[in-house]
Design brief:
Length: 79
């Protein structure tokens, strides 16, 4: 059986290498003004840091379930 989650992660890693400094996400405030942006590389690094924390510090394993709560922000995206 084909594992789509591995394919999506592989594609994201490929694109983050190819487009590392390009903005991927921009958080816009309630006035419609750009407030904060994340590049492909920053998004990948932040996501990997959260994953490492969950695996190493919280001792979760692949397949474990977790609920992450964030206020509307780019932290929500990376989580």
């Amino acid at each position: 059986m084909h594992n789509i989650s591995v394919d999506i992660l592989s594609k994201f890693r490929q694109l983050s290498s190819e487009r590392s400094s390009q903005n991927l996400f921009t958080f816009v405030n309630e006035r419609g003004e750009d407030q904060e942006s994340l590049s492909w590389q920053e998004t990948r690094q932040a996501g990997e840091a959260i994953a490492a924390f969950l695996i190493m510090d919280c001792q979760l394993a692949p397949g474990d379930r977790v609920l992450l709560l964030y206020f509307p922000s780019l932290d929500f995206i990376t989580a």
